Amino acid sequence: MPVTHRTALRFIPVIAAVALLATACATPAGGTASPAPTESAATRSPEPTPSATPSPIETQATNEEIGLPSSCDDIFTGELRATLEAELPPLNDPGVTMYSTENAEALTVLESGVPSLRCTWGTPSDRGVATTVSIVSPADAKLITDSLTSSGFAAEEASGGEYFRTSQQTLSMDEQVVELGETHFFRGNAWIATRWVNYSPDSYTPGIVAQLWP
C-alpha cells in the first residue's frame, strides 16, 4: 500500500443531551371534599421561589461542551507542540492530503458540513498525522461510534470521554513495513479524529484533550 498521504480532514464534536424531569401533582378524585383549614396571612408560610441554580446534570453537560478552536495553534501547545515541531514538522504542510479517518460513516459526517478544524503534521512522505476536531450532534456521534465498534476499533473510557483505537501493519509498494492507524475521542459535543502513518506518540490525543478541556 502506498504511504503517500491523502488529506481531507475535518472535525466533529459530540453534543451532550440533558434530560429535564418535570413533576406534576394530581388531585385525587372521588369522595366528599371536606373544607380545608384556613390560615391567617401572618402564619402562612411563604411560597418557595424557584432556584436559578442549574442542576448538577445541567452543569456537567455545559462544562463538557466546547467551542470549535479557532486555529491549530489553540490545540497544540506546550510540550506536545515542542515534541511535534522537533519530530514531525511542519504544522499544516499544504502537500499533506491524508484524511483524518478512512471509516465510511465517519467520513460521511465529516463531509456533511459539521463545524470542523483540520490540522496536519509532517510532509508528503512515509510519516505523518492528520487530525480533525469537530462539533457533532448526539445522533452523529452515535452513528460514528457504532460504526467504529462494528469495524473492530477498541474502546476505552478515559480523560472524561471515550477513545476508539485501531492500528495495523502493511507493506508499501517498495515492500517496506508501514504502521498506520486511527484514534478517535468523544467528549461532550466534540469529536477528535486522528489518522497516523509511522508516527503515533501516546501523548498526542491526550495532549489535545487536555488543551480543549483544561
UniProtKB/TrEMBL annotation:
It comes from the Bacteria. Keywords: Signal. The keyword Signal applies. Residues 28-46 have a biased composition (Low complexity). Residues 28-57 are annotated as: Disordered. Residues 1-29 form the signal peptide. This is DUF3558 domain-containing protein. It comes from Microbacterium plantarum.
